[in-house]
Specification:
homodimer, 324 residues, 60s Ribosomal Protein L30, Chain: A, Phosphoribosyl-aminoimidazole Synthetase, Chain A, domain 2, 2 domains, eight-stranded mixed β-sheet, 13 strands, 35% helix, 23% strand, globular, nucleotide-binding (chains A, B), PurM-like_C_dom (chains A, B), ATP-binding (chains A, B), magnesium ion binding (chains A, B), magnesium (chains A, B)
């Protein structure tokens, strides 16, 4: 019979989970980390709950682990920072299978490893629902902080990659029949985008090779439309988006209509790309450096409205917790 | 009718809760903090769940907030560090009353204020049970880190205050009839100890006035016996505890037998005092400085067994999540 965590108890589970942490960090009241002199500390927290953010229907425990970590590392990337480590707070029903928890940690540490970082602490606790609270820590030189508050009229708006794929992947997982005519390669791309999104920590060095200028931006975790609107609201500016400049890759158009593809790109969320506002010349060099999926999709304006072609860009109700 | 959080939605709730954070810290993907040059960063996480760690029976929402913060700040104190801030991840059922959440935050910020620190970030999420995940951040000079691994034979074992009061307060709240003969002042002391425990950040300056020596210790959040046993296990030493040196204050003896009082002191937990191992002269000066409730209760030995008077000190099953 499969072990559940109540069979091994809290201490037994802790011992197993500590194997996923660097040994030198374990065992005291708190973890000790070094922040390089002159660097600022960056901190972000996410709570993910079974049935709200993930489900056995669409995501294996490894995928849940990967996604929880990726979402937090994306917030670290969105500040221009490099990760120092994460803490993991788990709420677990006593009948949770031990395998599920171990696979969750395997997914988390696999994602962390890609970005050269680790679990530095945590806590586990009995609960009636599985919840995963992650706090990610990072460090950044103060002049390299990426901020939502710094967009200026004339800045080009850059996205580091495609949008809408994760939302399409979710749709495909929830309603497999919808994908019956989909090419296998398109299917893989969409499902990977949903299950294994990649925080864009990889593009920061390219950015800093081009500029030490203060940069405006954020990640597109709640969708591309949300990111542009939030940057404009925080910076008290507006934007003009060129609809045709938003890349809608073949995998997406192979699955849904162009209209639906655009809707997914604008409002789907969880693509974890960065949306950056840069002087045009730097934007062009940056897009060329990081490759074909990056694009300039418009520019910042002094008028405080956000337009896509001739329409006002609005935020759909989107995902509001508690209200449904 | 009282508002529940589903009436105001996630954005509405976030706006209300942001009033409890310093305004300069809000609104970006992550918070930025400064760690002073030469200081190490200290990080600790706790998850607390309704019905497991707190209950409306024994703790008001303000008390829950205070206790969650106090437990985390105690871990910061146990590392010898000063707090930089906390992040708060909340899981909330949609029918949670708005007042409950606001009072939780009032309790948290009230406790934080006593220790000159703040909420620097957080997340809220729909869940089927109330959970509070707190990550506390602190900073410490590397030579002032208090560690479980540094106890040496000959060190005096110091406690910074009384033990057992919080456990007695909980008993009184769960079974009010047991306190029918208790003096009002004793009742207040016990209930305050449970509902408003004080992390001992206040004693660190006194400690450092006496020594820059590396210090062994931890907090007594899981009970005094657990703290002594853990320090001894981590440092590969033993200890001799003098039972009569453990202070059992009048409020405790007014409520239960001396035998029960000692049991609460050793195993009750959640008193959030510090247990420190110091050279005898420094220990004596330290106890004199911080006052009457502090005491030297024994000393560290080379033999790897922990004795209280002539008995071996053992750990009761204590509080094991998942196993009941």
């Amino acid at each position: 019979m499969e072990n559940s965590i109540k069979d091994i108890g809290e201490q037994g589970l802790l011992k197993i989970l500590q194997q996923f942490c660097p040994p030198e960090i374990i065992g005291d009241d708190a973890a000790i980390l070094e922040v390089k002199n002159g660097h600022s500390l960056v901190v972000t927290t996410d709570v993910l709950v079974d049935g709200v953010h993930f489900s056995d229907l669409t995501t294996s425990p490894e995928d849940v682990g990967w996604r929880c970590v990726a979402a937090n590392l994306s917030d670290i990337a969105a500040m221009g920072a490099k990760p120092l480590g994460i803490t993991v707070g788990l709420g677990l029903p006593p009948d949770t299978s031990l395998d599920w928890v171990i696979q969750l940690y395997e997914g988390m540490t696999y994602c962390l490893k890609q970005y050269d970082t680790v679990i530095v602490g945590g806590d586990i606790c009995r609960s009636s629902v599985i919840s995963v609270s992650i706090t990610a820590l990072g460090s950044v030189l103060p002049n390299r902080i990426i901020s939502r508050f710094l967009a200026k009229p004339g800045d080009a708006i850059v996205i580091t990659g495609c949008h809408g794929l994760s939302r399409a992947g979710l749709e495909l997982l929830l309603h497999p029949a919808k994908g019956k005519n989909l090419e296998p390669n398109s299917r893989n791309i969409l499902i990977q985008a949903h299950q294994r999104p990649k925080p864009r920590l990889d593009i920061l060095d390219s950015l800093w090779n081009l500029t030490d200028y203060s940069i405006a931006g954020m990640d597109s975790s709640d969708g591309l439309a949300d990111a542009v609107l939030q940057i404009c609201r925080c910076s008290q500016v507006g934007a003009k988006i060129n609809q045709n400049a938003i890349p809608l890759p073949y995998a997406l158009r192979n699955f849904v209509s162009d209209e639906q593809a655009l809707d997914y790109a604008l409002y789907g969320g969880e693509d974890f790309e960065l949306v950056l506002c840069l002087p045009l010349e730097i934007a062009e060099a940056f897009v060329e450096t990081i490759g074909q999926n990056a694009a300039i999709i418009g520019h910042i304006t002094a008028e405080k409205e956000v337009r896509i072609n001739d329409r006002l860009l609005y935020l759909t109700e989107g995902y509001q917790h508690f209200s449904h």
